[in-house]
Amino acid sequence: MAYQVSIFLENKTGHFERVTRVLKDNGINIRSMTLTHTVSGWGILNLLVDQPEKANQALQESGLSSALRRILAFGMEDHPGGLDDILLQLAQAGVNFLNAYGRVLENGKQALLIVDVDDYDLALEQVSKIDLYPLNDEMVYGN
Amino acid sequence: MYWEREFETLERNKLRSLQLERLKRTVKQAIQSPFYKELYQRKRISADRLKHVEAIRELPFTTKQDLREHFPYGFLSLPKRDIIRLHSSSGTTGNPTVIFHNRHDISSWANLMARSLYCAGVRDTDVFQNICGYGLFTGGLGFQYGIERLGCLSIPAGAGNSLRQIKLMQDYGTTAIHAIPSYLGRLYEVFQAEGLDPRKDTDLRLFVIGAEPHTEEQRQRIEDMFGVKAYNSFGLSEMNGPGVAFECTLQAGLHIWEDAFLIEIIDPETLEPVPDGEFGELVMTTLDREAMPLIRYRTRDITRIIPGVCACGRTHARLDRITGRSDDMFIVKGCNVFPMQIEGVLLKIPEVGADYLITLERINGVDEMIVEVEVKKDWFNGDIARLDRLSKFITHQIRDEVLTKPIVRLVEPGSIPKSAGKAVRVVDKRVFDSVKL
Predict the structure, then answer these.
(1) Who's near B224: CB < 8 A, 6+ residues apart?
(2) What is the pLDDT of residue B424?
């Protein structure tokens, strides 16, 4: 089961850097990320890192609102149409996302689609019906 | 020139005699209420002891706290069957402040309101649009009765819906308006968006503004935008509502109707009267109210009496602008807000901490109340939609409590100063001034 680290961030100068400094100090490597902001002056930073538990703990200890959030990661081909192929399957399975982002594993060959869903267990059930299985942690966080 | 020449231009010594006579009557009437009966018996106070108006200083003050503690009928000086209306403050935190009126009170208030409007130059030929909430809030019905007493064609438009307000103005040829100053900036923007110029496309000539602090520059901007004269007004629900003090057409301070209210300016710390012309807290006694007289009521508003006499011929004292409060109440968009009310709302929402910061700021010409709250760390799970729902929920809860919509900002934990000691809860970035004379 793979996790991303989600951090509540005010949209203020220097606040993003406050997060990356904690990660740097703890030797944590970022694999991928998204930053969502709202019109209300705050947003959420989602990080895919090599050591999610350690990152989450370090961020919380530094005083930030941070949480581990289960994600689903699927492999896809790193070529034109690769994302469309996997999205078509997910759509057929009936999976809807809150957020999604990607990561290239090997240039021109393999990539990852990471999706954040409202109901993790339901999504897992939906994809298993079409014989689609999320990747293991090693694949998601590893090199 | 005057609505009631005999009262408005009464010589000061005669006004003083009238006040003494009415003060005695008021004390006699007040003793009919459970609150004053107990208080005055205990302190051996009777109307006969009052030999001159200044003797009022021997009477105890009445506070908002007293009103709340003796809610709802502790201040009622008449049998309930004689009461015909109540007005009440908003909110669900603690007891509201409620004021009762009998037929005489409503009539007397309507007359003061008509006198105030006349003093600002409103005439029975005017078409008067009251852009103000009706209901428990005093600004709606208070103005309504005054406008009718004066004889204008009244349009009880209510608050909000700018397009409809503009349509009413155009359909019926509105010449006079009552609204809070911060709304008028917004209204002007709607005029512009519609490709209209209020100076050319309406018959507007006169505004009555009030119920929220504003600067002289703001007033002048409103006058320029709409091509009107804008007159400042003052009132508070405990003293009926609007119609307490109004500017005359000379715009040189607000005449406070001293035949209806006895005023004192005190030092809020020592509770002693301040020297003439100096700023202090306004303390008021009703002189013409039967259902619910209030004696030495501490308004918490900081102002002063402008020295000298007004060229308009009215002998009643002139109040300066309200420059602040001696408690933590603030006014935004015409709504009175106590930080305790915000705190009360937040305490009932387990997802957020009890620390908060209120910032009052003028954004695009409109006063806004920004409420910053911290989301609890252990509740946060990275779901943006859940946070957004929480933010909206808090916004609605606060709106229901204080009747004005805040801008709620969720902030990182630890970014708000903790409530230890006398923490700053309200930062007012708006700028107000007093009348320069």
Answers:
(1) none
(2) 64
- A70-141 CATH pick, 3.10.110.10, 3.40.50.2000, 3.30.70.260, 3.40.50.300: 3.30.70.260
CB B101 within 8 A of CB B85: yes
Q: From the list B380, B381, B409, which residue is nearest A41 (CB)?
A: B409
Structural domain count, chain B = 2
A86 pLDDT more than 90: yes
B113 with B170, same domain: the answer is yes
CB B358 within 8 A of CB B369: yes
**Distance in Å, alpha carbon of A38 to nearest chain B alpha carbon:** 8
Q: Cα A95 to chain center, whole Å?
A: 16
Residues of A in contact with B375 (CB under 8 A): 8, 65
A15 contacts on B by Cβ (under 8 Å): 412
Mean per-residue pLDDT of chain B: 92
Please indicate, yes or no, whether residues B133 and B77 belong to a single structural domain of this protein. yes
In a domain, B154, yes or no: yes
Q: Which residue reads 């703890």 in tokens? A: A26
Find out whether A33 and A116 touch, Cβ atoms under 8 Å.
no
Which CATH number belongs to the domain containing residue B27 in this structure? Answer: 3.40.50.12780
Domain ranges of chain A: 2-69, 70-141
Closest by CA to A59, choosing from A105, A21, A100, A111, is: A21
Question: Tokens standing for A97?
Answer: 């996302």
- CATH superfamily to which A2-69 belongs: VC0802-like (3.30.2130.10)
**Dist. CA B86–CA B66, nearest whole Å:** 18
Contact A65 B387 (CB under 8 A): no
For this complex, say whether ipTM is above 0.90.
no
Which residues in chain A are closer than 8 Å to B385, comparing Cβ atoms?
Answer: 98, 118
Q: Long-range contacts made by residues B191-196, C-beta under 8 angstroms, separation at least 24?
A: B191/B166, B194/B163, B194/B166, B196/B166
Of A53-57, B113-117, B407-411, B429-433, which range is least confident?
Answer: B429-433
Helix or strand or coil: residue B400?
helix
d(CA B411, CA B359): 14
Our measurement of the distance from residue B431's CA atom to the centroid of its chain's CA atoms, rounded to an integer in Å, reads 18
Say if pTM beats, i.e. exceeds, 0.90: no
- Token pair 């000539």: residue: B205
In this structure, are residues A55 and A28 in contact, taking their beta carbons and an 8 Å threshold?
yes
B323, B378: one domain: no
CA distance B20 to chain A (A): 56
